[in-house]
C-alpha cells in the first residue's frame, strides 16, 4: 500500500510517500517556516496557516515527482488531525480528506505525537512493541507505556514547560535564534559544565512527572547575576552546558526510574529534543549499565516531518481500513491516551 503522509500541525509542512509492503520511504519533502517566524521569536498561528496553504500542493507534486508516481498510484492518505494549531491542522486535514475523496481512497487521521512515537520505526534498527517511550518535543514531555499500536498509558508528563520549550526559552534569553535547542547544544560543546550548579527539578520526589519552569528561572537569574563577566561568550557557553546537563540528567534519570518501574527493556526516544547528542549518549551508556536498549529516529525524523505520519497511517491501515468519510476533523487538543488500537 502506498500511503501519502501529510503533516501541518505547526510550522513545518511535511509530505511523504511510504510503501507499507516494502517498508520503504519513497519520497519525503519538508518545508520549514522557521525563517518566517524567526523575527517574532515564536510561531505566529495565522502566518503558519497561510504558509501551509501556499506550500502544501507544490510539496505533494514534489513527492510524486521524487517517487516517479502520479496521484493515482496513492492507495491511502494519512494526515495529522491534532494536536496543534487549529488553522495549520485544518490545511492538512482539508487537503488530505479532499484528496482521498477525489481519488476514492481511504484516509486516516493521525495523532501528531503518535507520529513522533513511531518515527524510530523508519530507522534500520527498529524497536518492537512493547516499549517505554520518552516523547520530548517543543510542546510535550511525556513518558509513555506503549503496549502496542494505539495502546498508550501516560506515566509522566510535564507540570509546566515542555523540554523543547525550555531549550527554546533559554536560547532566546541568550540571544540565540529560534528554535534554539540545537544552538544551545552547539554552545554547550565548549562550555564548562562544572561552573554553575543547576537544579534537577522533581528529582528528589517520587513519580515520573517533570517540571522545567524552576530551571528556567534559575537559568535567567544566573544570566542576570553574571552580566559583569569579562567574557560574555564564555558565560553563554557555560550556561548552555549547565542547562543542557540539568535537562539531560533529569530526563534520563526519569527514564531509568520508569524502566525499573515497568520492567521494559526497550526505550524509544523521539521528538525534536531526541536529536540532542548528549541525551543520546547518556541514554546509551545508561542502557549498557542497566540492561535496556535505546532507539532513536534518524536525526532528520526527530522534528516534525511527513514520513512519521505516513508510517503511522500505514501501520493503522494495515490493521483496519476505516469507512470512507467526508467529514474533516482537526483537534487542537487531543491526549495520546484517547487513542485506541486500529
Ligand atoms: P510538538 O511535537 O510537541 O507539537 P513541535 O512539533 O514543535 O512540538 P518538534 O518539531 O518535535 O516539536 O521539536 C522541536 C523542538 O526540538 C524545539 O523545541 C527545538 O529547540 C528542539 N530541538 C531540536 N534539536 C535539538 C537539540 N539538538 N537539542 C535540544 N533540543 C532540540
Ligand atoms: Mg516545529
Ligand atoms: Fe512535533
UniProtKB/TrEMBL annotation:
Binds 1 Fe(2+) ion per subunit. Pfam families: TsaD. Substrate binds at residues 135-139, 168, 181, 276. Keywords: Acyltransferase, Cytoplasm, Iron, Metal-binding, Transferase, tRNA processing. One of its GO terms (cellular component) is cytoplasm. Its main location: cytoplasm. Fe cation binds at residues 112, 116, 304. Its EC number is 2.3.1.234. It is found in: Cytoplasm. GO terms for biological process: tRNA threonylcarbamoyladenosine modification. It is an enzyme of class 2 (transferase). One of its GO terms (molecular function) is tRNA N(6)-L-threonylcarbamoyladenine synthase activity. InterPro entries: ATPase_NBD, Gcp-like_dom, KAE1/TsaD, Peptidase_M22_CS, TsaD. It catalyses: L-threonylcarbamoyladenylate + adenosine(37) in tRNA = N(6)-L-threonylcarbamoyladenosine(37) in tRNA + AMP + H(+). Its cofactor is Fe(2+). Residues 25-310 form the Gcp-like domain. PANTHER family: TRNA N6-ADENOSINE THREONYLCARBAMOYLTRANSFERASE (PTHR11735), TRNA N6-ADENOSINE THREONYLCARBAMOYLTRANSFERASE, MITOCHONDRIAL (PTHR11735:SF6). Belongs to the KAE1 / TsaD family. Required for the formation of a threonylcarbamoyl group on adenosine at position 37 (t(6)A37) in tRNAs that read codons beginning with adenine. Is involved in the transfer of the threonylcarbamoyl moiety of threonylcarbamoyl-AMP (TC-AMP) to the N6 group of A37, together with TsaE and TsaB. TsaD likely plays a direct catalytic role in this reaction. This is tRNA N6-adenosine threonylcarbamoyltransferase. The lineage of its organism: Bacteria, Pseudomonadati, Pseudomonadota, Gammaproteobacteria, Lysobacterales.
Amino acid at each position: 500500500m502506498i500511503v501519502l503522509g501529510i503533516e501541518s500541525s505547526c510550522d513545518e509542512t511535511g509530505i511523504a510517500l511510504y510503501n507499507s509492503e516494502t517498508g520503504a520511504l519513497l519520497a519525503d519533502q519538508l518545508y520549514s517556516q522557521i525563517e518566517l517566524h524567526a523575527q517574532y521569536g515564536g510561531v505566529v498561528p495565522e502566518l503558519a496557516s497561510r504558509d501551509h496553504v501556499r506550500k502544501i500542493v507544490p510539496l505533494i507534486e514534489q513527492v510524486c515527482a521524487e517517487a516517479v508516481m502520479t496521484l493515482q498510484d496513492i492507495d491511502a492518505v494519512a494526515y495529522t488531525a491534532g494536536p496543534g494549531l487549529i488553522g495549520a491542522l485544518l490545511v492538512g486535514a482539508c487537503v488530505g480528506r479532499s484528496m482521498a475523496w477525489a481519488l476514492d481512497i481511504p484516509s486516516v487521521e493521525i495523532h501528531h505525537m503518535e507520529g513522533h512515537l513511531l518515527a524510530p520505526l523508519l530507522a534500520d534498527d527498529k524497536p518492537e512493541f512493547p516499549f517505554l517511550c520518552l516523547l520530548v518535543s517543543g510542546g510535550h514531555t511525556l513518558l509513555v507505556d506503549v503496549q502496542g499500536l494505539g495502546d498508550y498509558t501516560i506515566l509522566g508528563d510535564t507540570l509546566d514547560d515542555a523540554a523543547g520549550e525550555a531549550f527554546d526559552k533559554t536560547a532566546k534569553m541568550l540571544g540565540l535564534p529560534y528554535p534554539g535547542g540545537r544552538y544551545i547544544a552547539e554552545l554547550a560543546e565548549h562550555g564548562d559544565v562544572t561552573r554553575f550548579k543547576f537544579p534537577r527539578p522533581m528529582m528528589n520526589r517520587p513519580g515520573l512527572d517533570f517540571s522545567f519552569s524552576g530551571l528556567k528561572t534559575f537559568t535567567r537569574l544566573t544570566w542576570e547575576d553574571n552580566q559583569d563577566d569579562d567574557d560574555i561568550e564564555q558565560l553563554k557557553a557555560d550556561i548552555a552546558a549547565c542547562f543542557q546537563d540539568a535537562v539531560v540528567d533529569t530526563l534520563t534519570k526519569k527514564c531509568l526510574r520508569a524502566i525499573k518501574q515497568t520492567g521494559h527493556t526497550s526505550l524509544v526516544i523521539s521528538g525534536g529534543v531526541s536529536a540532542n547528542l548528549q541525551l543520546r549518549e547518556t541514554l546509551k551508556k545508561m542502557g549498557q549499565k542497566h540492561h535496556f536498549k535505546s532507539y532513536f529516529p534518524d536525526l532528520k525524523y526527530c522534528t516534525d516531518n511527513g514520513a512519521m505520519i505516513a508510517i503511522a497511517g500505514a501501520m493503522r491501515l494495515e490493521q483496519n481500513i476505516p469507512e470512507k468519510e467526508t467529514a474533516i476533523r482537526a483537534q487542537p487538543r487531543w491526549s495520546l491516551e484517547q487513542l485506541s488500537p486500529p
